Structures are given as structure tokens and as C-alpha cells.
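S., here's the first fold you wanted:
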Amino acid sequence: MAEKIEKLDPNFRKQELKGGFCYRDLYSCENVAVGGLFPGTFCRMNPEILPQIPSEGVRELAWHTAGATVRFRVPGGRFAVRMKLRYGGDMSHMPRSGIGGLDVYFGTGTGRTFCAGFRGETSGARDVAGEVTLPSGEEEVLLHLPLYDGVTQLELGFPEGIQPERPAPYRIDKPVLFYGSSITQGGCASRPGNCYTAMISRLLDCSTWNLGFSGNAKGEPEMASYIAELPMSAFVYDYDHNAPSSEHLERTHLPFLRTILEKQPDLPVVLVSKPDYHNCNANRKDNDKRRETILRTYLWAREQGYRVEFVDGSTLFKGPFAMDCTVDGCHPNDLGFTRMGEKIGAKLAQILNI
């Protein structure tokens, strides 16, 4: 039998936890800022609203913690995390580190740096834990929570006598809200911090709220009404992929946006068409119809005087290795997400004047 990789390469060995931390439940920790979750829960939507949402998929996927963040300062730079996953599932084309992993970044503003990532060690594992010692002089922490799993418990551990302190405020406090497909949710990033919405959060130093629902964001009027009531600094409108047909997109795209803009007429909006436009297996005629629908919505909104920008999805993966930006012809890998983050982030910076 071949040697296990852990024996051949020590960099693949499971981290040994040394202990010595006092743990507290996330929501009992003062001065810890939680983003992208309904207060006091691990749900991306108000759980009391979920029964009113007709899509069973949205009701279930709302408990995935895609885009959720935890921020705090820790004197001395030492802390630990213990997390219990809701499902502990695996997929064949997305790493466990992205599905149910937790990322640790340090730094402030637009200067945050990846430090560590934790994940379940075996298929089906629901327990995730890790300990961190930040580089000397660093104290502020950003955690990105799992993309394709939920969390039932999250505990933060600190050395005895140490309490977390409040992090620096974001440059843009009200969240940029994203509504879209599995790509928006983060499939198939290698880890949570590499989802394009997370990249934009760090790129612009802004709070974000990820309402990407894998296979299930289809422009339902109930979702438009829900989103219209939420506080936002900007709205990224990106559910092209989930519309089951170009005809469905045509019926739903403009009414959905109109519902939101009637409630928030000054809201900056970035409309995005599907990024895998050049997939060799794609229906180019159908893709053209979809892009034309989104462009018409954009032109209508601009003519009405709304603050809107359009990102042509066919341009998102352009550049060297353009055809290598996905894992399956559809879902972006980290290269694809990087290009999306850069280009959509630049458009958001433009519309937000930053």
C-alpha cells in the first residue's frame, strides 16, 4: 500500500491543537462584529420570513453561511475557533475547504492577508477547529465562514484574561448586497475567502451580504420584496444562471429590479450577465438572448434616472487562460473568481465613488 501523503509531506499533516484557550459562544462575545447573517442566527435571511418564500431550495440554502464574516481584534494575536457544521457534506468538484471550511485573515482596511484555513479532516466530518498565532504586531482578525454548508455552533477561544476588542469600522458600512446563483454563493471556490463577493469585501473594505442561492435564485417576486426592505449601499444583480430559460429571465428580470428600485430609488445597482458565456458547450444563441434581456433592464433603469452599471459577463474571464477559469465549464475556480472580483469590484468602486 502506498504511503499516506501525511507521511511523505509534513505540510499535509493535521494541525495538532495545543489548547489553553477559554471558549465562548460567538453571540455571547462582546465587541465581535458578525456580517452577512440575520442577527443572532446562522441564517442569511430572517428565519421568520422563510416560510413565505415559495422556493424550498432558497429556504434550505439560506442556512448556508456563504458570505458570512466575523471580525474582532485580539490583544496578543492568539485565538482559537471551534465550529460545528450543519451538514458535513462533500462534492466531487469543490474542495472541502470551500464547502465547509473557515478562513482566517489578519489586517485592516484593504490590507487584509490570508493567514490560515480550517476544515473537516474527513468526509462527513462536522467538527472544524484550529488555533492561530498572528504575525507579531497584528491583532485584527477577519473570518470567512463556509460557502456550501451551514453552521450550528461557532465558539471563539482566547487565552485566559483576554477579551476581544471591537474591530475598525469598514470604509463602507451598509452592506453591498449580492443576489444570484451558485456562482454568487461561491461554487466552486477553493476556500470561502476566494468567493468573488468575499474578494470584493476585502478589495473595497466594505460589508457584504451574499444572497446567492445555488440553482434556486430565479427572480421570485417574494425575494424582490424581501430584498427591497434591506439596508444596502449597493446591489449586485446576478441571477442569470439560475433562470431556467431565456424566456423566464425575460419575464422576471425587469419586474424584480423595479420592485427594489421603487423602494430604494437612490440605490446604486450593478447588473451582471453570466460569466461562462464562451463555454464551448454553451448555447450561444440562448446566451445572447439572456445578455440582451439584462442589457434592456439596464437601459430602462438608466432612462428612468436610476444609478445603474452593467457588467457584460462575456468579458469577465477574458485574459490569459480564459478557458481555464472554471472547474466544470460553469462554476469558477479561483482564477475565475479573481477576475470576477477585480472587474465587478472596479464597477462597484466606480458607482460608489471610492
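And the second, which I think is the more interesting of the pair:
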Amino acid sequence: MSVAIGYVPGAFGQGGDDPGYLRHLVELGDSFGYDSIWLSDRIVSDRFSLEPMVALSMIAGYSDRLKFGTSVLALPLRNPVVLAKQIATLDYLSQGQLFPAVGLGQEEAEEYEACGVGKEDRGPRTDEAILLMRRLWEEDNVTHEGTFFSCHNVSITPKPFLKPSTPVWIGGRSHAAARRVGRVGDGWLVSSATPKEIQEGRDILFSTAAEFGREIEDDHVGVLLGYYIAPDAEVAAATAHDYITRHRPDAHFTEYSALGPAEQIVQTIQEYIDAGAQKFVVRPLCPAEETIEQLEIMGREILPRFLKKPVAHW
């Protein structure tokens, strides 16, 4: 198994004044050898936020090397037939660069209401949507009569480039999320989790997969890791504090972030590797104007420590 490190720009409006900012981010990723770039999903937000499926199509045109994905796509808010078509088209055109990671969405009820979906059934809705999308990618004629979605004798083309279908990674830190990966997913991309929680989740994920007669690759465990590089760890934590997307009531953010000098960042990433994570999506925890600098420092001082082997594939 080998380590892959991608990146996500901060979730606080980076690039809102510059339509060329996304291209600049992609060029940065290519120049430093990042594995992939990931975009968050906020349909309803007062902060600047690109719609990820549209923006990823731009990324596909900007780079023929960098992989790209969603971190994570709010699946209950979308029609799975339309989304399956979008994903298959982008996967086909990019020849396998797309890696969609999906989740249940944010906690705020107003986003579900605005999209015409009830929050209370988002879990089973997500499970059914994944299964239906996978059938549409793998089968030529699909009839589905489920709790939330129905279709009769339908096909979508093109089919995805990756066979038998585009791998679907699933986000979420809970044990329920890990079990969902085992039941219907292909990989786990978890945020705001400690190394111990990664280890516990891995055990649940793979035992659930075995229970359902499924196989998931050993290295398909990923971590979205917030970081800030500074000479002093306390200064780094003070800067990062205001850029945590959601503070946990049961754990301080320093327990699941990489903060401090470069050597400390390397050590933190290694702790996650020792816990069983192999794929990383790093996110700078900083003001918008520092994002590029932080990604450059990560690319210059941290990536070479983990990319001695050929670049890994998700």
C-alpha cells in the first residue's frame, strides 16, 4: 500500500473575487505533485461556494494528471438518476480521474427544505441512491421500485470509464457511516476524526463488508485532515481555531488536526497511517489570503516525505 495526498481549498470563500482562482489551484497541485483536488458541497450558503460537479468539469479541462473528487457530495439532496448521468459523463470524459465521495449532507434543516427533501430519512435515502446509481452504471436496462426512487426500463450512456462502475467513497465519522461503507461503498473518506477513531472505524468497515459478502480494498480508507504549518504549535492552533468547519463537543480540534512545524505535520500524518489510513485530503486552516502559501509549504516540505514511491491511485 502507498500513501496518496490530495488537497481541498478552505471552506470559507476562497477565490470568490477571482474566477481564475480554481485554475491557479489546479496548476499548484500539478506543480507540486499532489495526487488529487477535492471540492466541498454547499448548495445553500452565505459563503462563496462553487457547485462541485460543474467546477470539477472545469478541473478536468485544466489538468490531465490531477485526480479530482467531492468532499463530500450531499447525496440526499440530489436525484440519483441525474447524478449518475453526470458522474458517468465526467468519468468517461476524464478517463477515470473522478472520485465521487458522498455523504448525508449538513445538519442545517433549511438546506433539505430548500431542495425539497426531508432530513429525517437521509440515511436510507442515501443507501438506496448509491445502489440505484451503481445499477445504472453497470446495467443496460434498469427497473427500480424503491422506497424513495422509481424508474422502469431505463438506461444511461455513456457508461463510466472505470469498470465495473465508478467507485463511490462515503464520508461520515460515525460507526453508522463506517457500516454504510461496508454495505454499499467502495471507500471511506472521514473528516474530524482522531487516529484512534480511524482504527475503530476500519474494523467496523471491513467486518461489515465481510458480513455482506463484499470486498473493499485495504487502502481505501481516507482522512480529510485540517492543517496549519507554523514554527510554533500554539500559534498554529490559534490561527486554525476560527477555520474549523464544525467544532466537536466531545474532542478538541487539536486532536484531529495537524498543527505546528513541518516535522510535527509529518508525525501527525504518520500517526494516521499507523492507524490504517492511506489516502489524505489536506485542508489549510487559515484565512483565504494564506491558502496558497500553506498549500505550497505542504507541497514543498511535506509531500516529498510520503511520495517516494510512485503516486498512488485511489
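Why I say that: The longest helix spans residues 122-138. Confidence is low (pLDDT under 50) at residues 309-313.

Talk tomorrow,
H.
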